[in-house]
């Protein structure tokens, strides 16, 4: 039995009186890539933001067996749960290196130094641009920096919100290669994507969200073959 | 010649003086404006401007990190000046009691928050240490030191130790509970805090004004100008503070964390930087800078419990010119504000406040037109 | 009825208080002070709570009114009533001058600006020879009405409170009108308001001047009740107190202003008298108590007290509007085929090499396409392709870097959303921009703003009821049309997101547009809602309307549209009928590329 890292149990999120997520449950086990796909406004990002604690949620969220539903974002980060948000949220007027340094804010200095070397090994591009301001980089580089910054906290589970958003097809392919590499390196991933085809190809397990609810769940390969899902989310044929 | 404009010599910080409408009429209108007078006005303006620069930078810092437009920054100056001047006069300043009261209130807030969220003994111990023990220790030291004839340096250090913790404690009580509120709500809160601090200033320091002795009797003749040791101290300390702040923000992890919070709050939280930590740190720095400004001002003019507000507002003019964002522009603007004020107080001393505050309007206008604001929906 | 009953009781109570035998004059005077403050606070509620412009400088306008009448009556011997129009004119003129600057300040710069001129004016009042400098002006004559002197506070009480209640009623009327909806749209959703032809800057200025006139009126009354004016009551601290009253009562609540004024005035009096008596100290703690109360209020009950007071009364159910005469329409009426067919097929909206750059980033790269009359055109593309920016270029929210946008042969690039709306272009927003506190009906009626006439005076005096009934009937009709009739009187914020999107469409239709611009209309809709939306758009097309929509849902787009334009990385990569787009290689690459 593999260990369950993250357990989201009947989580609901409301913006004022509007329910954006209704009773969603899902698990992420160690070493897994789990993806949540769905249309714009289906509540995917809301679910991730609630999981990291940036939004208040009803229901229970467990991480490594501990109930983290009421913890602050910062405490979830300290436990190894990291989010790379849809808008990246980089420190745009600071250098690439400072972004990474701050990524390691919650880990001891020595560990942060070693991790930075690893991140630079993984993303040589970031090393080349270490003194450049984050805001001046291209979309793909920014996505790499956002992932690199999250890796600085030595995450046990990395949540990626639309990592392919706004990137050229070639860069998207790079990003998905990085995701596969990360899993190989022992990081579990919860991936939210509109690019359903790529997400299903990368993931072990998938959930489809519609109007705030999970409508279909199953092994990613199976969902990729499901005619209805292909129709709705894999573009048109 | 100085003899023609005696107020410049006797009161080099005339502009910092109390400026109620009751203030006297025209000070001997100049027969002719010669270069010397302009030089005097320039020097006077730059001295005041240096202090406004410190204030402006503190205001920018607090706004960037917490989005609080910190109207009461001036009160930190008043408290710093009064504390230092009273210590120099061999008396125990009211700051001692103020600090203990603030700590007790902050502890109450922490205690209630803990009852609500849980958190156990460690959290309680930490709160007790920071809110109760630390202020008590500082207050105790002050009681031991006050009136024993220690020199200005010890008094200055003690002043900073007394004033600085007021910043984080104030943040804890007034701003942290509504940290995510709109800028407007935070601004109204800041105005409320200003009222409270002025009232407390009166209660803890009394209505009488005090003035500290000059830091040194040094007088250097530089052409037609007399540069006092006090002036030099203001220039040196302002420059040193700005360099120190720059190093802090560029080199230290905490400084970078503050910048990160200012650039992107959500991003900062996502790497584990606690917003409340950053807020407390920013307020601490603001109080430290305020206390320091107070020490510098104390020998230059008589300080009353409510003097800080007007001084602070002038720092504000500078901070706004800097768009509440840029430290260098703020510092430069502060010097300009000082000079404009100095010139205005010479040619139209009656209207100098009117002129200085009216100057904000075109700046705000320009800022509104050049800075794109996201529609804030609260 | 309940509200009228409550108001009547309040008025009777006020009328009786001075008549109670043994009632000390002191209390009547205090009540008069409450009224004077309430008058300012009512204006501030409109300005700050409703209009979203926080002013710390309101006391300065009292100063204008008070000083104007003081100079005219005490120095020049005018009668107070002769001086009244001048006092109001002076306050109003000052408000126009300051307002022209202030309402253009954005975000938190606005309150800082009010602080700046509030302080400047306070110092100015104390420096001007004619205004008696710091000592002010004394010897101001008391008011008299029909020969009855109001020197006695008991007599003045009636005048003050008549004015206060009158102002509150007129202001309430104003808010419940066409102009009132525009005012209420100021705080949330200025972009939406501009898109329906509301001149936001002008509306803000109206509110600003209105609030200043109430303050000037209060200053005029104050001068003749107090019989002397000095700068002190017109400074920044007084301005803060007025704001405090508005916040205590509940920003946005007209009657709350009276409650706030009462509480704050009484509290202040108590602090000034009781605290020294009890603690035997001369130290004024009112500032401390005020400050703490303000900070605590914002932490505990940010919406103020009035909503809690109203919560005690039974809720008033507002009825749906009755049918009324039809509003004049722009386009030929549906069904008259001949008129319809004339224009069909001709180009209505033309983008020619439209370009938008943000610094070095090209968001929209020389895009050209047309929307013909009676056609539904879709703009599609992956996220970040520049669809929303293109939309903003058409609606005037963003300015073109190069190229042109023409509507019905007229170039509209470079004009404002307001002007574009007047051409007959209505839009919805990707992120819903409704005022969540206004009812669905009121939100939709905002869309019909340009089709109404009634102005501010008509609204205050309730001379606008016929005009208003038509607007509301039109709004109701559009709400029925999108199938949300049962939710008409609910606050818009209480609806599901999909329903709110439909309300936005109804609001756009209430404008009687020729071209409808829809930004992701189907997002968040359930399947049957999407079908209903498609049916509605199909019907509108049949009636001759043109539609341009941005949409992600391919099924929705393919089944409905006549023409599709595909953007990727800011560039148009394809356009044509749906069948051609489905198989276009560049489109397939953009949507599916990289993942294969």
UniProtKB/TrEMBL annotation, chain A:
Gene Ontology MF annotations: ATP binding; ATP hydrolysis activity; branched-chain amino acid transmembrane transporter activity
A Pfam family recorded for this sequence: ABC_tran
Coiled coil stretches, renumbered: none
Domain of life: Bacteria
Entries under InterPro entries matching the protein: AAA+_ATPase, ABC_transporter-like_ATP-bd, ABC_transporter-like_CS, BCAA_Transport_ATP-bd_LivF, P-loop_NTPase
Domain named ABC transporter: residues: 6-236
Record flagged with keyword DNA repair: no
Keywords: Amino-acid transport, ATP-binding, Nucleotide-binding, Transport
Keyword Calcium on entry: no
Family matches, as SUPFAM superfamilies: P-loop containing nucleoside triphosphate hydrolases
Family named by the database record: Belongs to the ABC transporter superfamily.
Protein name stated in the entry: ABC transporter ATP-binding protein
Species in which this protein is naturally found: Blastochloris sulfoviridis
From TrEMBL, chain C:
Species, as recorded: Blastochloris sulfoviridis
Listed CDD domains: ABC_Mj1267_LivG_branched, TM_PBP1_LivM_like
Gene3D superfamilies reported for this sequence: P-loop containing nucleotide triphosphate hydrolases
Bilayer-crossing regions: 32-52, 84-102, 109-125, 155-175, 205-223, 243-267, 274-298
Predominant subcellular localization, coarse grouping: membrane
UniProt GO MF annotations: ATP binding; ATP hydrolysis activity; branched-chain amino acid transmembrane transporter activity
Protein name per UniProt: Branched-chain amino acid ABC transporter ATP-binding protein/permease
A GO term from the CC aspect: plasma membrane
PROSITE patterns, alphabetized: ABC_TRANSPORTER_1, ABC_TRANSPORTER_2
């Amino acid at each position: 039995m593999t260990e369950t890292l993250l357990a989201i149990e009947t989580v609901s999120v409301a913006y004022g009186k509007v329910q954006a997520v209704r009773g969603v449950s899902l698990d992420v086990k160690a070493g897994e890539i789990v993806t949540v796909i769905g249309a714009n406004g289906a509540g995917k990002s809301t679910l991730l933001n609630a999981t990291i604690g940036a939004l208040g949620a009803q229901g229970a969220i467990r991480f490594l067996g501990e109930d983290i539903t009421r913890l602050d974002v910062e405490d979830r980060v300290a436990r190894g749960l990291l989010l790379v948000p849809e808008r990246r949220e980089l420190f745009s007027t600071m250098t690439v290196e400072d972004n990474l340094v701050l990524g390691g804010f919650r880990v001891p200095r020595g560990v942060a130094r070693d991790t930075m070397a690893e991140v630079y090994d993984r993303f040589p591009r970031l090393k080349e641009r270490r003194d450049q301001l984050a805001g001046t980089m291209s979309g793909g580089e920014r996505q790499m920096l956002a992932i690199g910054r999250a890796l600085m906290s030595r995450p046990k589970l990395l949540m990626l919100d639309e990592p392919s958003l706004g990137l050229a097809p070639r860069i998207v392919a790079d990003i998905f290669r990085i995701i596969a590499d990360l899993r190989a390196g022992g990081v579990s991933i919860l991936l939210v994507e509109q690019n359903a085809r790529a997400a299903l190809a990368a993931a072990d397990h998938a959930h489809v969200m519609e109007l705030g609810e999970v409508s279909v769940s199953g092994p990613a390969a199976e969902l990729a073959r499901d005619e209805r899902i292909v129709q709705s989310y894999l573009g048109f044929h | 010649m100085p003899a023609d404009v005696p107020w410049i010599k006797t009161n080099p910080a005339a502009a910092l003086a109390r400026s109620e409408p009751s203030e006297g009429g025209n000070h001997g209108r100049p027969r002719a404006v010669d270069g010397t007078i302009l030089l005097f006005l320039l020097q006077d303006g730059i001295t005041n401007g240096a202090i406004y620069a410190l204030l402006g930078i503190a205001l920018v810092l607090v706004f960037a990190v917490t989005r609080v437009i910190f109207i009461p920054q001036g009160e930190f100056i008043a408290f710093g000046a009064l504390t230092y001047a009273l210590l120099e006069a061999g008396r125990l300043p009211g700051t001692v009691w103020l600090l203990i009261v603030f700590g007790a209130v902050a502890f109450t807030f922490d205690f209630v928050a803990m009852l609500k969220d849980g958190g156990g003994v460690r959290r309680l111990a930490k709160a007790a240490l920071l809110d109760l023990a630390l202020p008590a220790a500082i207050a105790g030291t002050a009681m031991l030191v006050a009136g024993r004839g220690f020199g200005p340096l010890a008094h200055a250090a003690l002043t900073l130790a007394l004033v600085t913790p007021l910043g984080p404690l104030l943040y804890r009580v007034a701003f942290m509970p509504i940290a995510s509120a709109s800028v407007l709500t935070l601004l109204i809160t800041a105005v409320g805090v200003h009222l409270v601090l002025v009232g407390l200033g009166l209660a803890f320091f009394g209505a009488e004004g005090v003035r500290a002795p000059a830091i040194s009797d040094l007088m250097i003749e530089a052409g037609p100008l007399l540069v006092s040791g006090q002036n030099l101290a203001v220039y040196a300390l302002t420059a040193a503070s700005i360099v120190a702040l720059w190093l802090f923000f560029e080199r230290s992890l905490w400084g970078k964390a503050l910048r990160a919070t200012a650039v992107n709050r959500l991003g900062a939280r996502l790497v584990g930087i606690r917003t409340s930590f950053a807020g407390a740190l920013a307020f601490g720095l603001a109080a430290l800078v305020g206390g320091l400004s107070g020490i510098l001002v104390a020998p230059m003019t008589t300080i009353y419990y409510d003097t800080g507000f007007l001084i602070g507002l002038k720092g504000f003019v500078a901070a706004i010119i800097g768009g509440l964002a840029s430290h260098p522009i703020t510092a430069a603007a502060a010097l300009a504000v000082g000079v404009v004020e100095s010139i205005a107080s010479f040619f139209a001393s009656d209207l100098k406040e009117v002129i200085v505050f009216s100057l904000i309007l075109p700046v705000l206008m320009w800022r509104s037109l050049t800075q794109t604001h996201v529609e804030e929906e609260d | 009825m309940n509200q009228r009953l409550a108001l009547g009781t309040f008025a009777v109570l006020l009328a009786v208080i001075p008549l109670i035998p043994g009632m000390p004059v002191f209390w009547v005077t205090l009540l008069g002070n409450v009224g004077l403050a309430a008058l300012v606070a009512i204006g501030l509620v409109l300005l700050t709570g409703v209009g979203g412009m926080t002013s710390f400088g309101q006391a300065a306008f009292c100063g204008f009114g008070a000083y104007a009448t003081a100079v005219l009556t005490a120095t020049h011997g005018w009668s107070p009533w002769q001086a009244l129009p001048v006092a109001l004119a002076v306050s109003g003129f000052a408000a126009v001058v300051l307002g022209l600057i202030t309402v253009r300040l954005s975000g938190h710069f606005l309150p800082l600006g009010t602080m700046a001129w509030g302080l400047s004016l306070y110092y100015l009042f104390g420096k001007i020879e004619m205004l008696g400098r710091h000592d002010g002006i004394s010897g101001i004559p008391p008011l008299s009405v029909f020969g009855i002197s109001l020197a006695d506070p008991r007599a003045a009480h009636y005048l003050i409170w008549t004015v206060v209640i009158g102002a509150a009623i007129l202001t309430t009327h104003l808010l419940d009108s066409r102009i009132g909806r525009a005012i209420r749209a100021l705080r949330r959703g200025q972009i939406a308001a501009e898109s329906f032809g509301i001149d936001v800057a002008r509306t803000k200025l109206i509110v600003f001047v209105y609030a200043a006139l109430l303050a000037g009126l209060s200053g005029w009354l104050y001068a003749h009740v107090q019989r002397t004016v000095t700068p002190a009551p017109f400074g920044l601290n007084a301005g803060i107190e007025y704001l405090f009253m508005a916040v205590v009562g509940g920003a946005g609540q007209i009657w709350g202003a009276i409650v706030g004024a009462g509480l704050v005035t009484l509290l202040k009096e108590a602090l000034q008298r009781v605290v020294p008596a009890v603690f035997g100290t001369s130290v004024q703690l009112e500032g401390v108590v005020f400050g703490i109360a303000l900070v605590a209020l914002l932490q505990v009950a940010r919406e103020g007290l009035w909503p809690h007071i109203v919560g005690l009364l039974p809720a008033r159910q507002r009825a749906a509007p009755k049918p009324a005469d039809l509003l004049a329409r722009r386009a030929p009426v549906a069904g008259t085929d001949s008129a319809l067919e004339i224009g069909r097929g001709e180009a209505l909206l033309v983008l020619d090499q439209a370009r938008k750059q943000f610094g070095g980033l090209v968001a929209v790269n020389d895009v050209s396409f047309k929307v013909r009359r009676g056609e539904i055109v879709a703009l599609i593309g992956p996220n970040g392709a520049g669809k929303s920016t293109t939309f903003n270029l058409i609606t005037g929210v963003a300015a073109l870097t190069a190229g042109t946008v023409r509507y019905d042969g007229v170039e509209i690039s470079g004009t404002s959303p307001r002007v574009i709306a007047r051409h007959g272009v209505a839009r919805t927003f990707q992120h819903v921009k409704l005022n969540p506190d206004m009812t669905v009906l009121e939100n939709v009626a905002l869309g019909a703003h340009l089709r109404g006439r009634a102005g501010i005076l008509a609204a205050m005096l309730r001379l606008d009821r016929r005009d208003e009934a038509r607007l509301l009937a039109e709004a109701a009709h559009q709400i029925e049309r999108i199938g949300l009739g049962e939710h008409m009187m609910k606050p818009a914020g209480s609806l599901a997101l999909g329903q709110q999107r439909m309300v936005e469409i109804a609001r756009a239709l209430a404008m009687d547009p020729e071209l409808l611009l829809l930004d992701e209309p189907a997002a968040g809709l359930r399947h049957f809602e999407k079908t209903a939306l498609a049916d509605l758009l199909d019907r509108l097309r049949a009636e001759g309307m043109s539609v341009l929509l941005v949409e992600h849902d391919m099924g929705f787009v393919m089944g409905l549209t006549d023409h599709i334009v595909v953007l990727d990385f800011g560039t148009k990569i394809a356009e044509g009928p749906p069948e051609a787009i489905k198989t276009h290689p560049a489109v397939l690459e953009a949507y599916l590329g990289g993942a294969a």
